[in-house]
Amino acid sequence: MAYSFEGHNRRNIDLAGSSRSSTSTAVLGSAREARLAREEQRRKERAATQVQKVWRGRKQAQAWREYCASVWEQTGSVANLVGSLGPGDEERLVQWCGQFQRSGFAVVKDIPPERALHYLQAISFRLMSVACAQPLSPNASTMLFTLVTLTTVTKAISSFPDLARTILRHLLERDFYARLASAYQRIVRNSGTSASLALADG
Q1: N or C: the chain end with fewer CB closer than 10 Å?
Q2: DSSP the chain
Q3: What is the C-alpha R_g of the chain?
Q4: Is residue 163 within 8 Å of 157, Cβ to Cβ?
Q5: Which residues partner with 157 through β-bridges?
Q6: What region, left, alpha or beta, does residue 79 occupy, with left being phi > 0 and alpha being psi -120 to 50 degrees?
């Protein structure tokens, strides 16, 4: 008995008109499209991961600032003030300016000198940033007055005789004059006078 393994529904494939080159071109094209689709999918996944990472980082930073702000309000700790610096910190900065004007450098007397310098640099930079970003704010003059004191004081912390120069260098490295010029222009635009007239009046 003879067996046939071809089955009854054998398909007849007609390759008339096709060539080996066109078949390989189609295969290569579909492979390229699949590869590009995979690359696009990986790019989207990386972008989504990056967005999530940034969002989580900002949320954690905000939570940390809020925590430091609450501790600052309870203790007046300079370290926690620095930890709370960021959007919405103007009121805390003004409070610190009041403390500094009353107590001077006693506000950092219990802090190791190198940490005190770091904190004062961070506070000075934030004072400059907020005052220059909102020069018409009623608190801007308080912050600028404190900043002037920090950058011109001759006697500060005994272990840091060049404190004022160090803070000023820190600010200059962060576009101090450009920020002041921008703030000045904002004041001039708001007052409606020319820059030269405003300068002459000052």
Answers
A1: N
A2: -----S-SS------TT--HHHHHHHHHHHHHHHHHHHHHHHHHHHHHHHHHHHHHHHHHHHHHHHHHHHHHHHH--HHHHHHH-STT-HHHHHHHHHHHHHHGGGGGTTS-HHHHHHHHHHHHHHHHHHHHHSTTSTTHHHHHHHHHHHHH-SS-BTTBTTHHHHHHHHHHTTTHHHHHHHHHHHHHHHHT--HHHHHHH-
A3: 33
A4: yes
A5: 160
A6: alpha
User: Max alpha carbon distance in the chain (Å)?
Assistant: 119
The whole-number pLDDT of residue 87 equals 84
Tokens of 148: 């002037």
As a three-state string, the secondary structure of 38-51 is HHHHHHHHHHHHHH
Please list the residues that pair with 160 across neighbouring strands. Answer: 157
What does the domain layout of the chain look like in residue ranges? 22-75, 76-191
Task: Write out the chain's pLDDT in tens, 202 residues.
Answer: 555 555 556 666 555 555 555 677 888 888 889 999 999 999 999 999 999 998 898 899 889 888 988 888 888 888 888 888 888 888 999 999 999 999 888 888 888 888 888 999 999 999 999 999 888 888 998 999 999 888 887 665 666 778 888 888 999 898 888 888 888 888 888 876 544 434 444 4
Q: What's the pLDDT score for residue 195?
A: 44
As given in the structure block, the two tokens for residue 161 are: 């005789």
Q: Which two tokens stand for residue 69?
A: 């702000």
